[in-house]
Amino acid sequence: MLKRDLINAVAEEMPGFLKKDLDQALDIMLENILQALEDNRRVEIRGFGSFSVRERKARTTKNPRTGKVMHIPPRKNVHFTMSKSLKDGLID
C-alpha cells in the first residue's frame, strides 16, 4: 500500500475531510514518529505495534569475494514489534 492509497482509504471512511488535509495530517504524524525515534524514544501504536531504536555494535567482517577484512562502524536500526492483535489477525 502506498501513501496515496492510505489517504484515499481514509478519505472514503471520512468524507468530510479533504485529501490534502489528510495528507498533511499523515505527514505530521510521520514527522512526530521520526522525531521520537531520533530522540531515542519508543513509539507505541496500540493495536498495531511499537517502534524502537536499537544500536548495532561495531564489528569486523571479511569480504567473501576479495578476502579483505573490513570494519563496520556501530549504527542504529529501527526495530518493529507487532502487537498481539495484529499478529493474531495475520495468522488467521
From TrEMBL:
Keyword DNA-binding: yes
SUPFAM superfamilies assigned to the protein according to its UniProt record, in alphabetical order: IHF-like DNA-binding proteins
InterPro entries given in the database record: Hist_DNA-bd, IHF-like_DNA-bd_dom_sf
GO BP annotations listed: chromosome condensation
Keyword annotations from UniProtKB, A to Z: DNA condensation, DNA-binding
Any one GO molecular function term: structural constituent of chromatin
Record field: transmembrane: none
Family: Belongs to the bacterial histone-like protein family.
UniProt-recorded name of the protein: Histone family protein DNA-binding protein
Organism: Desulfurivibrio alkaliphilus (strain DSM 19089 / UNIQEM U267 / AHT2)
